[in-house]
Amino acid sequence: MTRLALVHSTIRKEEKLLLDEASRRGIPVRTIDIRAEVLDPASFRADFDVALERSVSTVKGDYAALFLEALGVPVVNPAAVARACEDKFLTSLLLARAGVAVPRFAMAFDVGAARRAVADLGGYPVVVKPPLGSWGRLLAKVNDEDALEAVVEHKDVLGTPPQKALYIQEFVRKPGRDIRAFVADGETLCAITRESPHWITNTARGGVAKNYPPTAELRDICARASAAVGGGLLAVDLFESAAGLLVNEINHTMEFRNSEEPTGTNIAGAILDYCLKKAKAA
Amino acid sequence: MTSGSASAAAPGTCPVCGGTIPSGGGLVATEIVVCPECQSMLVVESLRDGEAVFGEAPKIEEDWGE
Fold first, then answer.
1. In this complex, do A11 and B32 lie within 8 Å of one another by their Cβ atoms?
2. Would you give the end-to-end CA distance of chain A in angstroms?
3. d(CA A186, CA A184)
């Protein structure tokens, strides 16, 4: 029987769904609260065959993945995949290099460069995002130069160093929704739309999840997006645009509490299946 | 692991308002719950004889997400 480690910090609904599913299947699980661990390769006892990294803290999750990989344990997702997905700028660069359609984007570090970036991207409105972050937090839709100056000044004075790296993205006029696809090594398992009258459609911000049967176009772009960031178990967020689907972001420790019911897919089960497959392949 | 609530609450009670929180079984340590009386975000600090001890949930940090 394959032994699984669930690396976590705060337990969310998703981790409970995973633990319940593992219990139903009789999969032995060691839960590891990464916040309380000592990552000492000389003393850590890796008595499991595969680790599922589900830390809500990106930084701690990264170190957990690096550590366990160094001990020879396969980790879902690998540290390199996490790195490629957690930084929006790096994700966009990798996708663009692979020829995957993305909204136009640029990075700038001061207000003058930000003004030039906006001009390069086609003008206002644009969206300014922190390169690291999630749940639609600290996004700013910037409609004019006055707002741009204010946002940049606030970040410059009040922000932490990562907040002072300005990821600027063209504002995509989407049809009141975006698409999230759940993807395992390039294969789309299921997808939802997230509908909201607000321009931020994250379910963490009130977007409503509805089933979206995957189309051939969705499957194709998700396969290519997955390959661009190194594969793994991913939630690919996309915009529908006049030019077709655009990949906005990719999440490597995806939340799915609102997606199982509308899609009729046991996502927790699919995640465990994927982990068992990785353990067997190791 | 908590944000460091000042006083330990009795098992099954909210450390903020003192209200009773139904455990209903199935709680796990580090799980986040909402107090039904004061709506405070709480974390399950430990489980004692099947009863949960709650603390104030940690604040969301910059690197939290999915």
1. yes
2. 15
3. 5
Judged by DSSP in three states, A218 sits in helix
Query: How confident is the model over A81-131, as pLDDT tens digits?
Result: 999 999 999 999 999 999 999 999 999 999 999 999 999 999 999 999 999
B58, closest residue in chain A (CA to CA): A10
Q: Does B26 touch chain A (CB under 8 A)?
A: yes
* Dist. CA B23–CA B11, nearest whole Å: 10
Pairing relation of β-strands A233-241 and A187-195?
unpaired
Q: Give the architecture (CATH level 2) of A4-76.
A: 3-Layer(aba) Sandwich (3.40)
For residue B24, the model assigns a pLDDT of 67
- Cα dist. B23→A5, A70, A155, B13 in Å? 26, 39, 42, 10
Decide if A19 and B32 are in contact by the 8 Å CB cutoff.
no
**How close does chain B come to A159, measured CA to CA in Å?**
10
- Those residues whose C-beta lies under 8 Å from the C-beta of residue A125, and which sit 6 or more positions away, are A141, A142, A143, A171
Q: What pLDDT, in 10s, does the model give residues B38-66? A: 999 999 999 887 789 999 998 888 888 88
pLDDT band at B1 (very low <50, low <70, confident <90, very high): very low
Asked if B66 and A251 come within 8 Å (Cβ–Cβ), the reply is: yes
Does A8 reach chain B within 8 Å, measured CB to CB? yes
Report yes or no for ipTM above 0.90. Answer: no
The CATH architecture one would assign to domain A173-275 is: 2-Layer Sandwich (3.30)
